[in-house]
Design brief:
This protein is an alpha/beta fold and 284 residues long. 26% of the residues lie in helices and 29% in strands.
Length: 284
Amino acid sequence: MKPEQIIIIGTGRLPCHCLEACQGGLIPVAACIESGSQGFSPLAALCRKLGVEYKLMLDRKTLSGFFLSIHKPTLVVSAYNYFIFPREVLAAPALNIVNFHNSLLPRHRGRNAPTWSIYEMDAITGITWHQVHPAVDTGDVILQKEIALAGNVTALELTLQTLEVAAAAFKEILPSLLEDSYACTPVQDNGNGSYHRSTDVPNDGLFDPGWNIPRAHAFLRAMDYGKFNVFPAAKLRLLGREFSIAGYQVRTANPGASGEPSVEFENRQLRLRDQEAELLITCK
């Protein structure tokens, strides 16, 4: 069923890129929706500039009612969107809902996928555009793109990288979405699938001083969203006390290092050393 209109739901940069990709086509963007308020909205600003209707809907019941009121064939683009479509909306015959996810499904379904890709030290991650099914992030795959995981990337940096790749991938699939001519592939779960809730935190947010440097660095980077408080500050329990981790630095060159790995804690600074690197962690 070819769509007669497009509705975009999401927040941040990606829905803006999707809106720009859809502009100028024969099928209009009827509205852009945000289901969460995060202060300044680049999507709202872009909608004002382009003359597209913008809706802020914070209530799930209101959102469901809005989608159930649609009877015209509609392509719904879920782009960095936290609203989970209920079964009755997914069953609505007028709606074709496609969603972006920031991992290679079925790996790291659910929330904060970049965190888990880094923490589990995946060599490759990526993005997925897929159909929306009742079970979260299980719908048939439309397109996936791989991203090689750099050894120093933080969760924030990886999140931004996935959004860039997702925007380019959306442009690639958009013509087939509008013509209803795209092919889907069922998600292949080879036993590596996983699901993470928004409340899940790597190692319960607790740094283990017994980790080797690559594992320790992966944990710190997985928790690192810069100024965005996605997780509480990581904790360190040592000497009968609990500290908050305020910063970290890894030095890949460690001239003169020899012997067994070492752990030192002095002046609220934890220092892990091995023959290849040194990791400095500042606590408060």
